[in-house]
């Protein structure tokens, strides 16, 4: 502790290390005192134990999950060149947004979630609005994760049981794993899930390249891919496709929780650069290669593009990844509610009865609500698209532009340099573009829900039907 400064506070010695953590020194015991979690005592959960490599895994797993499987279909809608341009544009904007999460957290150490940022910028209204949006968004994503897992189980087992049972199994496993108390102990799951989902998507990518035709193509004649370099979609089709790309990058609100549990938040940017580079390269390669070989016969999700056998193999690899996605997206809103309920009390960081009752109540409650919504709503797939367009965009674009303006507006008014002027323009652009994508994507999703319901009437509540047939 050679570079620490020591202060006296409440008759206790505190030292501040180079990473910004306060250390409480009581006799011979040294414990971390965090601005969010309070004093992290020996024997209790260690909320500040995620290394920078673990941060990479958690970040990439919140990004690479359900969204990557729809990217080839997005390129089919937009055309390969416009699709890749839109993908890279959204990658740049969301990477800047993710970077702002780290900067804002380092400047405002008491911020835990996006609602705390909303409180600083817009008061109570901002806090409650973003807090509710955060919970709803992850609940619907958790429901989508459960359905994705049920698709995988159906594919692997050739519909070995009622789909409603598979969804319930996914919910139970998700609840059990998400109840692990800290992200530091979940990082190994993130590595496992990331490895499995990447193996699955690269397997289908290789398979479509070596097969003579995709599964959905006509079996007769010589197959020639009908991929398009450019396309002419309607506004609704184009904006819905862009919303799918935003959803593929919409792990941004989770990054508040992740940086809050890092051992050294100063390494956040390093982790972010590795994450976003890996994610963008993966999305581009998977999207372009699969679409190039499949053309308009690409399946969505893409794991079904190479036939029944490859679909079974790919979903076998993907299942752990889908379960880890479900685990993380249950854990995140549950941890948010848990911290908000117990913040400022010793129950947050000590293994008391109230601590465990609240924690299991949060993870169990989120899992049950996500399961009920996923199983009971006839147009759940369209509803996830709607929530992604409305809430995913809302929490990945506009708040981050506002966060930069909140921290730098007074400096800009005083100096008005060229750099600050350009940054103001950029922050405003992020807010405006996010609002446009949110409104347009919401409209496109509503139109899609209505069209889907007119065509099929949606799925039945708690259906036993095989939901892997179409993929």
UniProtKB/TrEMBL annotation:
This protein's record includes keyword Protein biosynthesis: no
Main location: membrane
Topology within the bilayer: Multi-pass membrane protein
Stated name of the protein: Amino acid transporter transmembrane domain-containing protein
Protein's cellular compartments: Membrane
Keywords assigned by UniProt, alphabetized: Membrane, Transmembrane, Transmembrane helix
Boundaries of every Amino acid transporter transmembrane domain copy: 49-446
Record family assignment: Belongs to the amino acid/polyamine transporter 2 family.
UniProt-recorded Gene Ontology molecular function terms: L-amino acid transmembrane transporter activity
GO CC field: membrane
Keyword Transmembrane: yes
TM segment ranges: 56-75, 81-101, 130-151, 157-177, 189-210, 238-259, 271-293, 313-334, 355-377, 383-406, 418-443
């Amino acid at each position: 502790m050679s570079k620490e400064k020591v202060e006296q506070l409440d008759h206790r010695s505190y030292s501040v290390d180079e990473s910004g953590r306060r250390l409480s020194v009581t006799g011979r015991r040294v414990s971390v005192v965090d601005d969010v979690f309070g004093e992290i005592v020996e024997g209790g959960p260690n909320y500040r134990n995620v290394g920078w490599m673990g941060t990479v895994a958690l970040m990439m797993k919140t990004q690479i999950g359900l969204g990557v499987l729809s990217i080839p279909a997005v390129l089919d809608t937009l055309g390969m060149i416009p699709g890749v341009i839109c993908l890279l544009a959204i990658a740049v904007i969301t990477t800047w947004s993710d970077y702002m999460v780290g900067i804002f957290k380092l400047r405002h150490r008491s911020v835990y979630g996006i609602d705390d940022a909303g409180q600083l910028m817009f008061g109570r209204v901002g806090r409650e609005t973003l807090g509710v949006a955060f919970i709803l968004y992850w609940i619907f994503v958790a429901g989508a994760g459960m359905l994705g897992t049920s698709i995988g189980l159906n594919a692997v087992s050739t519909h070995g049981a009622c789909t409603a049972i598979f969804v319930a199994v996914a919910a139970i496993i998700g609840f059990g794993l998400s109840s692990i108390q800290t992200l530091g102990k979940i990082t190994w799951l993130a590595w496992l899930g990331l490895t499995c989902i990447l193996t699955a998507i690269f397997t289908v990518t290789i398979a479509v390249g070596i097969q003579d035709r995709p599964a959905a193509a006509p079996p007769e004649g010589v197959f020639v891919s009908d991929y398009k370099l450019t396309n002419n979609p309607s506004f609704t089709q184009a904006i819905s496709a862009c919303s799918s790309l935003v959803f593929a990058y919409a792990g941004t609100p989770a990054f508040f929780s992740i940086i809050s549990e890092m051992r050294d938040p100063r390494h956040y940017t390093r982790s972010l650069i590795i994450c976003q580079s890996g994610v963008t390269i993966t999305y581009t390669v998977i999207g372009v290669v699969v679409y190039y070989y499949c053309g308009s016969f690409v399946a969505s999700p893409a794991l079904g593009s190479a036939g029944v056998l490859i679909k079974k193999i790919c979903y076998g690899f993907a299942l752990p990844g889908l379960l880890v996605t479900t685990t993380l997206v249950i854990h995140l809103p549950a941890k948010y509610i848990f911290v908000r309920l117990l913040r400022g009390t010793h129950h947050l960081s000590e293994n008391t009865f109230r601590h465990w009752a609240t924690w299991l109540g949060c993870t169990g409650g989120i899992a049950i609500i996500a399961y009920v919504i996923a199983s009971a709503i006839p147009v759940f797939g369209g509803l996830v698209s709607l929530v992604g367009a409305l809430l995913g965009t809302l929490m990945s674009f506009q708040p981050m532009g506002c966060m930069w303006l909140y921290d730098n507006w007074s400096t800009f008014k005083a100096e008005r340099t060229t750099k600050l002027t350009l940054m103001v323009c950029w922050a405003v652009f992020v807010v405006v573009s996010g609002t446009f994508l949110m409104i347009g994507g919401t409209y496109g999703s509503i139109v899609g829900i209505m069209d889907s319901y007119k065509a099929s009437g949606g799925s039945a509540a708690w259906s036993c039907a095989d939901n892997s047939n179409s993929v």
